[in-house]
Write a structure and sequence with these properties.
Mean pLDDT: 79
Largest sheet: none
Number of strands: 0
Shape: elongated
Low-confidence stretches: 134-140
Length: 188
Amino acid sequence: MEPDEERLSARPAVEAEGLRFLHVTVGSLLAAYGWYLVFSCILLYVLFQKLSSRLRALRQRRLDRAAAAVEPDVVVKRQEALAAARLKMQEELNAQVEKHKEKLRQLEEGKRRRKIEMWDSMQEGKSYKRNARGPQEEDSPGPSTSSVIPKRKSDRKPLRGGGYNPLSGEGGGACSWRPGRRGPSSGG
């Protein structure tokens, strides 16, 4: 029975020696290339995540295309909904255009009435300026202007004639300014 015990005792020594060899080998490998291995594992993990998300998206697109090709009713419903939305938007736009045209018609009608009133007042010999301003003042929701007396411009003579231009060099007495000569001075 002793040879069996020797075999059993020899086996753990060989296993221990193998574990020690494995420990030394792996330890020296990690000591020499450990950071490279860590960074490469992180890089592989990130790369795998990106590729898997893209593959999922690609598969989903293929399934959607296949579903759209298989179900033409869905495509027809989408197109009908799109056409209905466009029609609704066009109707809203047409309604806004009609409102705008109606406002313009009302403004034109008001202007026409004012012109007619002005013409009638001129035919009767009244001042047309007062009548032309009257409806505009009525429309404006401002403070009452009946208490404020408008100031008139005085009928004074202008200081100079209308054709006076100080930059032209004309129309101004005996003194005239001329710029100096260009170039270096020759005063030596």
